[in-house]
Amino acid sequence: MRRVFLLRAYGDFAIAVQALAATDVIVASLHLKPLYDALISRGCISPRSIDFVDFGITGSQLNLFTNKTFFSNDTFRQLSKIRKYISANPGTSDFVEQSARLGLLNFFTGYSFKAIFETREPVYAAYALPAQGLERKGDKVLILPDARLPKRVIPSPILARIDGQVARFGSDYTTFEQLIDLIQASDYVVTSDSLPLHLAYLCRKPHFILYPDGGKQDFFTPDALASGSFSTFSQFDHV
What we know:
Radius of gyration: 18 Å
Shape: globular
Helix content: 25-40%
Largest sheet: 5 strands, parallel
Order of helices and strands: EHEHEHEHEHEHEHEHEHE
Structural class: alpha/beta
Distance between the termini: 45 Å
């Protein structure tokens, strides 16, 4: 039996929670539970058993996986909590989502995690999540420009060229439930390469991805890739 530790960002969780097999045992950071609760309350996924554990993660993901907070004291506190959890709950085949900094994770926890997929491998393909054949029907366009990384936020001059409702975090929505409601009420979603993209796929809404020049396509959805529904900021023409 495979045990999978979900310690990364909200978008990673939204993908993994729909892709992991029913036989997989899931251990997830407590910071991801509000998103899980929202997905359940809005009928996006079926309930499943997940052990949500407080590993001290207060940002978007385990500090070890970031550059900004990599060497902070909190990083070592988080790793210590993971180590203690494993000591109290030993497993035989434990995984994390991707291989980035896997060696460091194993070194600091004294454990031997494996990775489900290699970093820079197309994530949806690695999870065997298929294109859903999503087709645009209706004219209610929702534009979600925000992203965790500032470089991925869709610039205002591009937003001005798209006819639709722009919804921003902090003013138009402040909770995962409100974000999901906006997506479910739309016909078509224009989004940055961030959590809303993965929620659009999960909610079966056709979507278009805008991303920075030089950005990677590792987390692009199968539907966007199949239909060519994506563009860099500089190459954007129209939706």
